[in-house]
Specification:
homodimer; alpha/beta; seven-stranded mixed sheet; four-stranded parallel sheet
Chain lengths: 394, 394
């Protein structure tokens, strides 16, 4: 089937380890279908400036390699389209005969996709808009999970295992590790997969879904430290205290509100000030979303399948929908589906209460059941049983 | 050859990804030699408290697995021995018939090893003390490099490649990445191995060997950003400004002086304040020294060889020396040697001037020649040439 008109793909928001795999899925599935497939350079900015890459003319082997590479090979942008931008976007689409627009992003991007869809309809321009899910934060509704989340979750779970091994060997220190995730605790929760014994790190996990008083935090740390002589804390970058503030950390404004820039450092400082304990902080930060060596092949496969599904949806004549993933867990299987933009746009799926322990500082077994098939086994390190004090042995 | 008396091994200072490989080398090389081989739990603290692990009675397969695991399986300590501690250490050695002491650590630890050697001599106690080199900072004299450095260098070089790929895709942002290394720029320098094209990250690398004025830093960042619309900076945690202060960052006291805890965050804040640019900071921190997935087999092999050499030196009757590595680079080969404690104790080998470019913000080709065989190739990611603007193409 060959269709008249050009298809265009653009990336939006922060890169992930597998967004290029979705791009590869679109490229491969659309050969011999549309009149052409363009990629916009740097997301909507490349649409506005008419900077496109002719994707079907790129060498097959290069595309395959790009499909395995982290970050966005097209470039991406956080631009939120103004009314003027929407006018311009439709004009550019008309000029270049763009009839299908694939937009890869999170809930904010699906809102923009919806606006572009409406703008085209208002102008009686025949355009299909299809969303491809992408966010490490895993905060999209209607999909089991989002491509990019499993690889980043694996990075942070592995990081907590490794920092935990360091903390066990050097002891006498509190380690606060800052986890990505903005307002959603999915990635912070995933660090629980690092544990194999009851006293393995992380010893405390905090979720931005619940406010956390400094007193509770300090009491938790003191309790763990007095028992183990060590303590590793996983805290989401978006964590707020009971006054709704980030514990006095520096904040920066962003397209979706302010976010602390040095939360873990601030909590480490408070730990030393109030408890007199030696405390450090680590902030792997963006390394967690673009770390090539931790990209999971299963995550790449699903991301690619989402790209392929987007093309099939377009060829079937649908529009105004985002591709979704639906999964069985025993045994693990996935298939793709779709959902209307209006069910996902600008809506944030935070970590549900059934995945958070009543104590507020751990996950539930139900979360591990959810996440384990996505993240895989985090192999424990061999150790002497005698290193662990008796009370540490499980 | 079977010798009377017990051999004891202890770890000192921060763990590394391969310190357990040195332990494995000692365990394997010493079978059927000493009357017994003990490991001290948590370094000198375990000596003082007489807490030992009988290493020859541990299962061979477990030892092999531990040899591949990062962090210290014995536990380690930063204890600097007081005169009272030295008395106690010799008493414990007498009580347990310890005649050979293997101490694994950096330049401070070799100073302690020397003190223990002297304390035994003063008390007419026949004791051999052999040092095994270990530090990610690579700041020991008389050895080509230190086990643990290559794996951590690879972690940070890989991290800069990945953060660079993220920064290229999202652009319009300055990224400050904090690198371990205290007062020595070896690890910061190693991030240069991430580059394959002239405009790849890191765009600026700073070394603590030279003070850096805020004006110079800001001018460097502005120059890079105005040309590329992006900028990734690698800065060592021990970097000081021209007043000898860490740019207003928080410092904590340590056994070897104060060290900034949030240097990269502080520099990002100053970048935004003075240049009006969006800036972020990342601090992988301790993850860099214990990250199992980045441990190099070549680093493990050399670490193990150092442990084996320590045993051979002991059996040859030597004492008061540390094992060293000596390398040819074309083709790469290594062999072990030894050096007197007095040549390495409490002396810090910083990054030599011939490895730092006159500009103060990059390495020289000579450094790459030195480091590349240790760290290996950091594979570049496939990308569309069209993504890079023309001025970015090399």
């Amino acid at each position: 089937m060959r269709r008249e008109g050009i298809a265009l793909v653009a990336h939006s928001g922060g890169p992930t380890a597998v967004i290029n795999a979705s791009l590869l899925g679109i490229v491969e599935e659309s050969r011999d279908t549309f009149k052409g497939l363009y990629g916009a350079r740097y997301g909507l900015e490349g649409v506005l400036s008419e900077e496109f890459i002719d994707l079907h003319s790129e060498p097959t082997e290069l595309m395959r390699q790009i499909g395995n590479a982290p970050s966005s090979a097209l470039g991406t942008s956080r631009l939120a389209a103004s009314d003027q931008d929407l006018d311009r976007i439709i004009d550019v689409f008309k000029k270049h005969e763009v009839r299908v627009f694939f937009y890869t992003g999170g809930n904010g991007s699906m809102g923009t996709a919806q606006q572009i869809q409406s703008a085209a309809a208002d102008r009686k321009y025949d355009l299909q808009v299809i969303g491809v899910p992408k966010t490490i934060d895993n905060d999209l509704f209607a999909t089991d999970h989002t491509p990019g989340f499993p690889s980043t979750a694996r990075f942070f779970a592995s990081a907590l295992r490794d920092i935990g091994a360091d903390n066990l060997a050097l002891r006498n220190q509190v380690e606060i590790v800052e986890i990505l995730g903005r307002n959603a605790g999915w990635l912070a929760a995933s660090t629980a997969l690092a544990r194999h014994h009851g006293d393995d790190a992380p010893h405390l996990i905090y979720f931005p879904e619940t406010r956390l008083s400094l007193d509770t935090f300090l009491a938790d740390v003191e309790r763990v430290f007095s028992r183990l002589n060590r303590c590793v804390v996983a805290v989401c970058e978006g964590q707020l205290n009971d006054q709704g503030e980030p514990f006095g950390a520096d904040v920066r404004g962003g397209s979706r509100g302010s976010l602390a820039q040095n939360l873990a450092h601030r909590l480490a400082t408070l730990t030393t000030q109030h408890l007199g304990l030696r405390a450090r902080s680590e902030k792997p930060g963006l390394l967690g979303r673009c770390c090539g060596p931790f990209a999971l092949q299963s995550d790449r496969d699903e991301a690619k399948a989402c790209g392929q599904a987007a093309v099939r949806i377009a060829l079937a004549g649908q529009s105004g929908v985002m591709v979704t993933l639906h999964c069985d867990r025993d045994p693990y299987r996935y298939h793709t589906g779709s959902v209307s933009f209006s069910d996902v746009a600008f809506r944030e799926r935070t970590l549900p209460v059934e995945y958070r322990s009543p104590s507020g500082n751990d996950v539930t077994p139900a979360f591990v059941t959810y996440a384990a098939p996505l993240i895989g086994m985090i192999q424990p390190y061999a150790c002497f049983r005698r290193l662990l004090s008796d009370r540490n042995l499980t």
